[in-house]
Amino acid sequence: MNNSKEFSQGEIYEPSEETRRHAWVNNERIYEMAQDYLTLWDEVAKSDIEWFEPYEDVLDDSNAPFYRWYVGGKINITHNCLDRHIESKGDKTAIIWQGEPENEKERITYHELYRRVCRFANALRTLGVKEQDVVTIYMGMVPELLIAMLACARIGAIHNVVFGGFSSTALRDRINDANAKVVVTMDGYYRRGKVIETKRIVDKALEDCNVESVVVLERIGNDVSMVDGRDIWWHDLQKVPDKCECKALDSEHPLFILYTSGTTGKPKGVLHVHGGYNVGTHITTKWVFDLKDRDIFWCTADIGWITGHSYVVYGPLSNGATILIYEGAPDYPQPDRWWSIIEQYGVTVFYTAPTAIRYFMKLGEEWLEKHDLSSLRLLGTVGETIDPEAWKWYYKNVGNEHCPVIDTWWQTETGMVVIAPLPGVTKLKPGSVTLPFPGILVDIRDEKGNPADSGELVITNPWPAMFRNLWGEPERFAKQYWRSNDSGELIYYTGDGARKDGDGYYWIIGRIDEVLKVSGHRLGSAEIEGALISHEAVSEAAVIGKPHEIKGQVPVAFVVLKTGYEPSVELEKDLKTHVRNEIGAIAVPEEIYFVEQLPKTRSGKIVRRILLAIEKGEEIGDITTLEDITVVEKIKDVKGAK
Ligand code: 6R9
């Protein structure tokens, strides 16, 4: 890499000769060639993925936006993640697991992983789990979490992983919405030296759910209560064969539901399927991270989020890679825990989020200097915009100025990376996500829907790993994301603001709707408002995302109390605890202001833009559309008094 030239959009970093020479993709013409996207997606599906029966058509768009990919094909993603590797690399390490306690670790080969997945698949069958049944998985970062996911997929069941940081109420809502038959969980796991009592949270959630069985992995050995006839230990389900035939499924067979936040209070169950998701996550893992057989790939995301699904589990395993998973907190017992793990295991490709990079930047370089990080050869980032300063810090201090920094833009809905550099061909500009992945056509639209250099980021063609539906809400799926262009073609609206520079490089500005990213975690304003309103003292609430130096954004709430309730420090505390119980710690507002009224338009819509301007101490702008303009000064007074 050389970081010589100054350019109008900042510095440009060219791929080094070394990276270029060895990269999977090193011909710039890939971008031109990929304009014919159906040919690319056909070729890749044939060259890199195994099918039990070939597909007849690459794409069926006759019922858009309910697109179907690889029509008529038979596949099972676990065949591509496991079976096909057994012969050539059965003894290769698939998973390196590091517990939070330093002495707790495990290595699992592809052969062993295959056997354990088969065994658990058979175990699920003995519990009556069939094709299309939903299994909710609520666990910490342990190998059995991946095993449970793959076991579901193997028998055609649908997994629904719920992030371990969500509360029992949030878990309950997801179990009920997905209509899960079985829950897979554990006694507990370690986080910052403490035991998170997972099973206890599940028990609370299940007070209001109807599931048939709960499988409990013994990880810690802490006390748990087992309900007779419902709860069963993972280890008691192991007396089943370790062979389980891989079910040949239709390309469009559902693989998983993952709930994510949108602009309404109710999280959306994003649905992904076996065929296209396998193709899309496989090829992006291979090309974007330039993954090779000898790599040790560490994506730090929790598996409870889409990044974990696509780039801890499915993409890397489909490529037969060695992945690393770590149970605990990044800075426990010391701030250099991550760097010591990279050194200890010789991690070569490292993929994390800007919030973590900013955190470590703040802690200082001395924590990195203690460790030899020379095994690293490529660095990735995801989840929110990385500012050029953090990008360069990452490049210099973690990558020692020889690892390309690969900024990847995508969403739960897109399933796979959509905009990102290809390390062998794409010049990098710190702060830019660079160019769309070959085979995906991205653009920007202004408010009228016309192409523009700045506006809302859109995707103008379907892509294989795209979500297929919202669980139980096909109308919401069809209405919310898609708009027709002049020629009647459907365009996918991402909800992100972006601009494009003279080189066609994309720069992401951030969400243009009421979706927040708190430490990289996606949350909706409406979801947190809903949690606040469910408290007996609250009549109305508005939540905004206030910029935060490390977390990116933090929720800040403006609350109107019901008659008979007075603002107090205790009530503020109580409301924070309430949000923690309703959603989880990540959703707790940093600040709660008790106001008399919220700024609303005459039609009753809350104008969150004004609250954000007040919170940031910025110019408020036009307030003539407000029903009552005096509310602005009153809210300013409340903030001033705090
Ligand atoms: C993968 C993931 C999606 C939202 C997305 C955007 C933001 C993700 C980004 C990025 C700037 C990047 N986002 N990657 N913003 N640069 N490289 O994070 O999925 O949790 O669904 O969030 O995250 O705002 O719309 P998800």
From TrEMBL:
Residue ranges constituting the AMP-binding enzyme C-terminal domain according to the UniProt record: 527-605
Known EC number: 6.2.1.1
Domain of life: Archaea
Keywords: Acetylation, ATP-binding, Ligase, Magnesium, Metal-binding, Nucleotide-binding
Pfam families membership: ACAS_N, AMP-binding, AMP-binding_C
CDD domains: ACS
Modified residues (N6-acetyllysine): K605
Cofactor: Mg(2+)
Signal sequence interval, chain numbering: none
This protein's record includes keyword Transmembrane: no
Binding, CoA: R191, R192, G193, K194, T307, S519, R580
GO molecular function, one term: AMP binding
Positions of Mg(2+) binding: H535, V538
Domain Acetyl-coenzyme A synthetase N-terminal: 33-81
Domain AMP-dependent synthetase/ligase: 83-463
Function: Catalyzes the conversion of acetate into acetyl-CoA (AcCoA), an essential intermediate at the junction of anabolic and catabolic pathways. AcsA undergoes a two-step reaction. In the first half reaction, AcsA combines acetate with ATP to form acetyl-adenylate (AcAMP) intermediate. In the second half reaction, it can then transfer the acetyl group from AcAMP to the sulfhydryl group of CoA, forming the product AcCoA.
Annotated protein name in UniProt: Acetyl-coenzyme A synthetase
Organism: Archaeoglobus sulfaticallidus PM70-1
Gene name of this polypeptide: acsA
